[in-house]
Amino acid sequence: MSLTSVSDKEVDIVIGAFRSDLTSFMEEWRPIFSRFHLIIVKDPDLKELKLAEGFDVRVYTEADIVKVVGPSKIALFSGYSCRYFGYLVSDKKYIISIDDDCTPAKTNNGDLVDIVAGHINNLKTPATPFFFNTLYDPYQKGSDFVRGYPFSLRSGVPCAISCGLWLNVADYDAPTQALKPDLKNTRYVDAVLTVPSKAMMPMSGINIAFDRELVGAVVMPALKLVKEGKVRWETMEDIWCGLVVKVVCDHLQLGVKSGIPYVWRNEKGSAVESLRKEWEGVKLMEEVVPFFETLKLSPEAVTAEDCVMEVAAAVKERLGSSNAVFSGAAETMVEWGSFCSNKHLIDV
Amino acid sequence: MSLTSVSDKEVDIVIGAFRSDLTSFMEEWRPIFSRFHLIIVKDPDLKELKLAEGFDVRVYTEADIVKVVGPSKIALFSGYSCRYFGYLVSDKKYIISIDDDCTPAKTNNGDLVDIVAGHINNLKTPATPFFFNTLYDPYQKGSDFVRGYPFSLRSGVPCAISCGLWLNVADYDAPTQALKPDLKNTRYVDAVLTVPSKAMMPMSGINIAFDRELVGAVVMPALKLVKEGKVRWETMEDIWCGLVVKVVCDHLQLGVKSGIPYVWRNEKGSAVESLRKEWEGVKLMEEVVPFFETLKLSPEAVTAEDCVMEVAAAVKERLGSSNAVFSGAAETMVEWGSFCSNKHLIDV
């Protein structure tokens, strides 16, 4: 898919800023991002912010966050989670978001990967969650449905989320990084696929895009660990969000794709140092996964908003008593709709 | 995985012969196959068979088939299905089988793909059907489990089937080939993944390997179309077999992998000519897929043999009245066990 078929009117690039100097980051991305509107959300903990010139950019700060969610909820948008405020204030159809330690990747042929074209292509072509296609996404150029694929399922369903991947530093957790410090992801796998219905997955927020009109109501930083830091392996907000999104997509018959486009990810933080911390997230997953795998939404839940409310009620009932982070997550999921309604409070 | 770690005592290469001259095919594969035992099954319709010299090979003919299944069942092993007789008579742990119109593929780096090493590596490392790993098979060299993957699921389950892929002529059905005669598969996707539990898939017999001890009782040519021919797009036996195998693997907590290793596939037959035929298989899939998607095996089914009997009973009950091919399939599934017991009737 060529870049020209992507309208800049339908895309917001959202960047969470938790480094004070984004100039080199923005320069690296200039060939790909320059014609799109950038939403940059400043981590409330960050003092200064330096940006490159020549972009169509709007920066949102702590003051904006307070206007929308009030001063008591500002911690929801600290660290990696600040980007979710950008998702909240966007009014475009598609949102693309990458971590600020990523630079453009190259294909096996040495071509620069255009993540905007790649994500938008994934989102604009149907997803096929109800039968696995062995040649991956049949809607990618050069592929198709293989022999035996039921014709009645070939029109697919709308794709709601496109989860991109990472070259160089992959998205491993702290124990894996610490045990295998030299493990780099060097394999460029030239494929994207629909994650089958009912299969759960660890959605990463490092390089992601979604259709805000379809699932914007679900993409939020509901579950945050108390000691959550500023390196990816300590975060859990995207993993939790991904489980909710996947359950909602399965229920609403929407698709989730995973694979290309890639970004190049650079080192950040010391994995060995992170070993001193508690891995609360690792422990939580053992409780969280069986919950989501058995969660059934009711036929009355016909919109993403309905689904979020049902998931929140189930989280509160079935997980709420075991850990305060779960009751906190349920609360945020209930409040998110009202945050969305408040976004007009920000000066345009 | 290097070839040296594969013992030739545990592998049979099974080739169905429905061309009278396999010499060039065998020469192409000599670097990879020469140290393994080859089981070549001659299509009963084939008169002559010419082979390359210097292989450890045993050829099975119509006379052998009659000894094991009787003269009335010989049609079960005609055309592509003759290879299943090789699966029946093998006593090795692993079986690898490819179509006789395939030659070795090359990787993106130009290296020859060793399909034996690739398949055995897939089969000897665990599969992970209960949670999707976004970096594909975490047991492949250079990969691992990504952040958020539950630790309790990281040991995986035994892998029962490895479904390889095809470069050049892909495994499309007749309508797709006829509509897009120039559509070739040129994309070498350097990945293999576990197809998630509960997701159905179109298993192709072109390039496949399996653990005979785990699922040998399930891999059979149960469903054969009346007008089934000698080109892949007219066959259905592998697709049906794949659906049964997947349901059985899901029930027994075994894994099915799909992806590398690739073979290079050459043109065979005229897609346009095939348009004159009825596509009975295409129509059957619309009935077959909902059946398998809703099929539940009982907790009493604890072996592959048990599972096959339960699937056969359900096929007979729920599909048997709609089409004679289904009652025929159920019958073969019931008889397969006795065929297996008869294999001692062949002279060693």
What would you say this structure looks like, in words?
The structure is a homodimer of 348-residue chains. Helices cover 33% and strands 16% of the residues of chain A. By secondary structure, chain A is α/β, with parallel strands linked by helices. The first copy, chain A, has one domain: Spore Coat Polysaccharide Biosynthesis Protein SpsA, Chain A. In chain A, strands 1, 2, 3, 4, 5, 6, 7, 8 and 9 form a nine-stranded mixed beta sheet that branches. In chain A, helix 1 links the parallel strand 1 and strand 2. In chain A, helix 7 packs parallel to helix 9 and helix 10 (304-318) packs antiparallel against helix 11. Chain A is globular, with a radius of gyration of 19 Å. Chains A and B meet through helix 7 and helix 9 of A and helix 7 and helix 9 of B.
How would the blueprint of this fold be written?
The structure is a homodimer of 348-residue chains.
Chain A: E1 11-17, H1 23-33, E2 37-42, E3 56-60, H2 62-69, H3 82-89, E4 94-98, E5 102-104, H4 115-124, E6 159-168, H5 174-179, E7 192-194, E8 207-211, H6 212-215, H7 237-252, E9 255-265, H8 271-274, H9 280-294, H10 304-318, H11 324-341
Parallel strand pairs in A: 1-2, 1-4, 2-3, 6-9
Antiparallel strand pairs in A: 4-8, 5-9, 6-8, 7-9
